[in-house]
Amino acid sequence: MSVLKKMIIALAIFCIFATVCHANETPATNVPAEEKITKDEEINWKAVTYNVLWYLPNRLIDLADCFTVELNAGDCGVDVYLTRYANIGAGVGNAYSAGWSHGRQYGFFNEPNYNANFLCFGKEARRRDNLLGSYKYFNYTNTSCMDIFMYPETLRHEDPYAIGAKASFLLGAKVQFHPIEFADFLAGFLLFDIKNDDRFENIYR
Fold it and tell me: What is d(CA 125, CA 113) in angstroms, rounded to the nearest whole number?
């Protein structure tokens, strides 16, 4: 048997074992003996199979969630940020962009914008309009110190804890890394879904 086949079989066994153990963490309730059912009757093996089949795809999607990559045309500027509390840069323009972004947004969007920021201080205005895909609309203006814990609802579609940079001169790109999404990716290997965004079915009937 090849090494690859052995690895696939071992992974399948691990997924089944981990899924059943994860479900068995549910606290037991006091049920009269005559009402108790066997383990085979409690466990929905169709759901177990579903979870096993989605184990690797969930990990790959969680890995993709760790990054934002956007290509844009129409604005000029440079921005570097280590969360919204450490944002340095300036820019202006009417950008047309395409990419994969925080919150599993993807497609094409238009974003008129201007900004001048130093750490959490600055002036900024942005409006995002989806053109094709799943990008969410928002319209945002900030003229004082950014408070992450009072982050406007209209900007929930971006990650205030992102680390990354944007550079453009009519043509450019934006790249971000999302630490919380990375923690969700790592926890997913042990079937802990921090962001509650995995495909998963309850294995109890």
Answer: 6
